[in-house]
Amino acid sequence: MAFETTRPLRFGDCDPSGIAYFPSYMNMLVGVTEDLFAAIDWPWPRLARERNITTPTVRLDATFVHPGFEGDSLTFRCTVARIGRSSLDLHHEVSAAEPLWRAEQRLVATTLDTHRPVAWPDDLRAALSRYMEVEHG
Amino acid sequence: MAFETTRPLRFGDCDPSGIAYFPSYMNMLVGVTEDLFAAIDWPWPRLARERNITTPTVRLDATFVHPGFEGDSLTFRCTVARIGRSSLDLHHEVSAAEPLWRAEQRLVATTLDTHRPVAWPDDLRAALSRYMEVEHG
Amino acid sequence: MAFETTRPLRFGDCDPSGIAYFPSYMNMLVGVTEDLFAAIDWPWPRLARERNITTPTVRLDATFVHPGFEGDSLTFRCTVARIGRSSLDLHHEVSAAEPLWRAEQRLVATTLDTHRPVAWPDDLRAALSRYMEVEHG
Amino acid sequence: MAFETTRPLRFGDCDPSGIAYFPSYMNMLVGVTEDLFAAIDWPWPRLARERNITTPTVRLDATFVHPGFEGDSLTFRCTVARIGRSSLDLHHEVSAAEPLWRAEQRLVATTLDTHRPVAWPDDLRAALSRYMEVEHG
Questions:
Q1: pLDDT reported for residue B70
Q2: Residues on chain B touching A30 (C-beta within 8 angstroms)
Q3: Is-contact C89 C80, C-beta < 8 A?
Q4: CA distance C65 to C95
Q5: CB–CB of B11 and D27 under 8 A?
Q6: How close A70 comes to chain C (CA, Å)?
Q7: Strands B87-95 and B99-108
Q8: Count of A–B CB contacts within 8 Å?
């Protein structure tokens, strides 16, 4: 099952050339990831408070296929590609009327105080696997 | 020759977990690219006005090795990996006391009005090649 | 009648001290104003295209009463305080469980090309007055 | 004595209407305030670590007189208008070729953990007064 959510592409997300400013896309992407964790009932403030875990991005590989324009309604479709010991690989597809961009993102569970990797707790691992991509044979 | 510039990592670039917020890094990266074009005497407003060209990012592949902290002084080192017909591949290395992150970025010269790829004018191509990576044999 | 909308206060809107970063609040405020114009059927891209009008902010007076925290659900309540020849005065109140901040904002209708003030077209003036504050005697 | 610093107005600070996006100005303003504290040898990370103090903005009153354009070199001129028990009133003037905008900003010294106001330590108060506006009779 994919996690889906929508975002308006706002005036403030666009640049003087008239298209989406890609760092604003990255800000949205973090927000979508935030919503994914909230959807499995582990919003980040709870994850920090109860498990001392934060989830920084260690890899981001994005391809921008078509420019986004002010007023576009963006659909973010996110699936879990792989859950490692402390890593989480997400695949994002973002579209308006047509596909606009896609990204591979790797998050790592780290401790809030030392910023060192830590294993995903089993309940979180199980909850995240809900959004795992399913191979169709 | 590499293009080098520095940036302070500010309070406003960091997140509640206490480290650099990666979309802020991306905003800096665009600014560094902007400075690169200014360094070859083609600041973007001039490029837009005189050549009708804008340079959106179509690919960004970033790896974050160590977290950046508020107060870090960041050194950005940027080289041109390849200049295609309308593409420009940049390699970025960002460090404080130690290497923090690196990125491969592809820009494409596009027309301001139609957002379609356009060939790099010869003078721009020549100017950009100043920052080409040199192979040491 | 007030224009109301909600926004999550996200991880990326907060700073290393753990509270909302006020420039992120300002970014949200622009988005709320954008939504107000969409609500009267004049989304900004249409306003630019059909009337050559953009609406920059010329005055912003904000008071931050309580800090906002990651995960807060913010309610923005916006009313029109006054419509001048080319100005529009908005009053904003932003609350979570309690009032967090408020702002007086003045926008000015300006031409897209020269950035000079221009009178609000009558139909826009009429549409905006829908959100005028009503005095209760 | 005024605290002065400069900032380029970048592509990423401008909006689709072609002028400075005011929330980006606010982000710069926070950075200028950050630099002011660094100039008195109390960079914010040190202030947090050694004194448990953070300095959120509780009031911001800004007037935008002329639009800023991509490529403008901005000069920020900041003076201390008043130092209260825990408040700090700053006056900012921002100009390129001509004055662009000005702002009155009130910061409050607060504890990092409870976000409650705390009195400015005497040494900080003395250091900040270096940038106090001087009345000329």
A1: 96
A2: 21-23
A3: yes
A4: 10
A5: no
A6: 7
A7: antiparallel
A8: 72
Burial (Cβ within 10 Å: 0-12, 13-18, ≥19) of residue D84: middle
- C-alpha distances (whole Å) from B10 to each of B14, B28, B73, B94, D36 are 7, 11, 9, 15, 13
Residue A74 phi/psi, 5° resolution?
-95, 135
Chains that touch A (3 or more CB pairs under 8 A): B, C, D
B113 noted as active-site residue: no
The C-alpha atoms of residue C15 and residue C18 are separated, in whole angstroms, by 5
Q: Which of A24, A63, A112 sits opposite B58 (nearest CB)?
A: A63
Which chain B residues have a beta carbon less than 8 Å from that of C15?
11-12, 14-16
Low-confidence ranges of chain A (pLDDT < 50): none
Contacts of D106 (CB under 8 A, 6+ apart): D57, D58, D59, D60, D87, D88, D89, D90
Rg (CA), chain B: 16
Task: State the chains in contact with C (3 or more Cβ–Cβ pairs under 8 Å).
Answer: A, B, D
Instruction: Give the C-alpha separation, D50 to B132, whole Å.
Output: 46
Q: Which of D13, D15, D89, D113 is catalytic?
A: D15
Given B15, B41, B89, B123, the catalytic residue: B15
Look up the ipTM and state it: 0.95
CA of D124, closest CA in chain C: separation in Å? 19
Chain C closest CA to B20's CA: distance in Å?
A: 9
- Name chain D contacts of A15, Cβ cutoff 8 Å: 11-12, 14-16
DSSP annotation of A124 reads H
Confidence of residue D136 (pLDDT cuts 50, 70, 90): low
* Tens-digit pLDDT profile for residues C26-38: 999 999 999 999 9
Length of chain C: 137
Q: Which of A137, A67, A105 is nearest to B54 (CA)?
A: A67
- Asked whether the beta carbons of C137 and C78 are under 8 A apart, the reply is no
A24-51 burial, b if ≥16 CB within 10 A, otherwise e? bbbbbbbbbbbbbbbebebbbbebbeeb
State the chains in contact with D (3 or more Cβ–Cβ pairs under 8 Å): A, B, C
H helix runs in chain A, sequence order:
22-39, 44-51, 122-128
Nearest CA in chain B to D30: B12
* pLDDT, tens digit (0-9, with 9 covering 90-100), for C94-118: 999 999 999 999 999 999 988 999 9
* pLDDT tens digits for range D64-122: 999 999 999 999 999 999 999 999 999 999 999 999 999 999 999 999 988 999 999 99
Interface touch C11/B14, C-beta < 8 Å: no
Beta strands in D9-72 (DSSP E): 53-54, 57-64
Q: What is the pTM of this model?
A: 0.96
Nearest Cα residue to C45 out of A14, D70, D23, D69: A14
Q: Kindly give, in sequence order, each residue whose CB lies less than 8 Å from that of residue A45, ignoring residues fewer than 6 positions away.
A: C69, C70, C71
- Which residue intervals of chain B are DSSP H helices? 22-39, 44-51, 122-128
